[in-house]
Design goal:
heterodimer, A: alpha/beta, OB fold (Dihydrolipoamide Acetyltransferase, E2P), five-stranded mixed barrel, 6 strands, 27% helix, elongated, B: alpha+beta, 2 helices, 9 strands, 15% helix
Chain lengths: 128, 180
């Protein structure tokens, strides 16, 4: 196949535009980042976190934390840690494997302090 | 006599405590989609709600940043540009289920739900229907209503105005459990 210079140029331009548009589209339509790949802003015990939260609750919104603590209770969507941190699980099938008498460590995102139930709320939690 | 009063009071307080149902993981969804464009919708699966089954009073609270979108960029714009989530992290609803009576709910029972919705610090009166039913020991509630973006001073830039509906449909699905 013998293409003239002009035709080659046209093909290259079309290819560049196609790649460019699909790259922009892929960027614009990206799914939100997964919790697994996010860096933790705080690592420690649930009690240490509570002290920090009470100092300045607004600063902790949307932060990723890794906390360990005692399981107070379980429901079908999550775990209550240290009687005051509710951790909503990303994958509820792990609930069966949790031994409520043991301490647990999990990674999650702080969504805020719930003043109706007086609990700190985390979502997307994964067991560490 | 005093003892009887004390006992009666204790019994009363126990029964008052038992009259509340709550959820921490209620589902709140909104849709502001325009046909033929990328759907503008998100779900919040972490809504807290408490209902007093004696009086029908209901209170709920959700965190704006806990709305999950399919597209990250849309979520960012929602939080930062439209909802100003850092300044107004919560949206709340306080209201009453008119004539609520737990004992008459078996299949599905429809009640009028009214109250105040607070978004971005702005209050709006809402009146809609709520459907209640029972599933095992859970009390289920479903409702939906419409609000306008202008009700909460949400400005939509001209460039995307034809892709985002001015009327937003909000639907709720809560599975209450008894508070012990």
């Amino acid at each position: 196949m013998n293409l003239s210079k002009k035709n080659k140029l046209v093909i290259i331009i079309v290819l560049v535009i196609t790649f460019g548009v699909s790259a922009i589209y892929a960027y614009a339509m990206q799914a939100p980042a997964k919790i697994e790949s996010k860096k933790a802003d705080f690592i420690g015990t649930s009690d240490q976190l509570l002290i920090k939260i009470l100092e300045d609750p607004a600063a902790w919104q949307d932060k990723i934390v890794v906390i360990s603590g005692k399981v107070t209770s379980l429901d079908d969507k999550g775990i209550l840690l240290s009687a005051s941190i509710y951790c909503q699980l990303k994958d509820t099938t792990v609930l069966k494997k949790i031994n409520p008498t043991n301490d647990i460590s999990l990674k999650g995102r702080i969504i805020g302090y719930d003043d109706l139930l007086e609990e700190l709320k985390l979502d997307q939690c994964i067991i560490q | 006599m005093k003892k009887i009063l004390l006992l009666a009071f204790l019994f009363l307080s126990v029964s008052i405590v038992a009259q509340k149902y709550y959820t921490k993981t209620g589902k709140t969804q909104f849709k502001a989609s325009v046909e033929a464009f990328e759907p503008v919708e998100a779900t919040n699966n972490s809504t807290t709600a408490i209902i007093n089954t004696a009086s029908g009073e209901i209170a709920s609270l959700l965190f704006v940043k806990a709305f999950n979108f399919r597209v990250a960029l849309m979520q960012e714009h929602f939080n930062e540009n439209y909802m100003d989530a850092s300044k107004y992290p919560k949206a709340t609803f306080k209201g009453t289920v008119v004539g609520f009576n737990l004992s008459e709910i078996s299949d599905t029972k429809k009640y009028i739900l009214n109250g105040k919705l607070t978004v971005k610090g702005i209050e709006k009166e809402i009146e809609t229907f709520a459907l209640f039913s029972k599933k095992e020991d859970k009390l289920l509630m479903q409702a939906s209503f419409e609000v306008q973006t202008s009700d909460f001073k949400i400005k939509i830039p001209k460039i995307v105005r034809n892709k985002i509906a001015g009327t937003i449909t909000i639907s709720l699905a809560y599975e209450f459990i008894e508070k012990k």
